[in-house]
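Table S2 (continued). Query chain:
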Amino acid sequence: MKKGKRRFCHYCGGPVSVKEEDGINRDFCPACSLVFYENPLPVVSAIVAEDRRVLLVKRGKSPYKGSWCLPTGFAEIGESIEEAALRELEEETGIKGRILALTDVQSYKSRFYGDLLFVSYEAEQTGGALKPGSDTVEARYFPVDRLPRLAFPSNRDAMRSYIRSKSEYWSIVDSFRIALGKESPKNVRKNLLSDKLVEVIEKNAGSIARRWLKDVRDNPSTAGYRQLNPSRLLEEILGILSQFGKWMGGYYKDSDIRDYYTAFGRESRRNGVPLSHVLSALSLIKKHLWEFALSRGMWKRTLDIYMALELDRRIVMFFDKAVFYTSQGHEATGDPAP
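Corresponding output:
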C-alpha cells in the first residue's frame, strides 16, 4: 500500500493545512500551531560473509515477497543504527553478530514508505544458529559472484561497494594460494598478480637485454664476457629472459631449467668465462629485471606493493635454480678450467 498524505493532526484530530517554512511546504496544524517535519526513515542492512559467500534471506512479506535480500529492516526508537542492524540480522537469520565496518549509505525513495536512508554494515557472526525469522522464509549463503537479483536497489549498491572494497584483498589471497600450490592443477600459475608485470617484462625483453649487455661489458665482476661477441651475448640474454617468461607462465618444469642451465654452464666454461663471472652475470639479470619492474610505476597501492614482492620472490626462485644448475654444468665438464 502506498504511503498516504497526512490529513488530520494526530494530537487534536483537527484538519492539517500546509505552511511554507525555509522554502519547504510542510504539514501544519493551525489549532496546535504545530509543524510536522518529515525526515527520511532509517533502514539498516547487514552484510555477513564467509569464504566469499554472503548471507541472504528470502522475504516472507510484501513488499518483494519471495525475493532475496540482505537482512534488512527499519531502525527503532531508542536504539543506535548499529544496534538496529544487529537486531535485524538476528531477527531474520537467527545469527548474533558484531559490526565490522560501514559499507554504504544512500538515500532512496520508496512508493511504500516515502524517503528512506539506507545504511549498510559489514558484520561477522559471533553466535546463534542460522534459521529463517518471522519475516523470512529462508536464509542461506550465496557466492558473491552468483548472487540472485536482490529485492532492494540499495542492497545491490551496497553489495557492489562491498565487493569493490574486498577486490584487492581477494586478489592477494588468490595469488598467494596459487603461488603456494594450494589451487587445483588446472589453475596453477594462472592469475598470479605479478603475471601482469611478467607480461610487461616479456614485451620489453629487448630493452632489458641491451641494458644488461652494457652493464655486463663494463662491470669488473663480469670481465670474462668482454672477449665474447656482443651479438652472441645479446642472443644469450634474450634466451635467458625467454626461459624466465616460460617458467613464470607455467610452460617449463624444473627439469627444463636444469637441462638449459646445465648446458649454459658447460658452454660458459668452454668459452673461458670463470664461474664467478657467470654467476655475477646472472645476478645482473635479476638486477635489471627488478629495476625495470620498478620503473613501471609501482608502489602506489597496497596491491602494487604485493605485486612487487611476489615478483621478487618469483625472480629469486627462478634464478636460485638457474645458479645451481649453471654451477653444476660449469664444474662437471671435462674441459680444462680457464
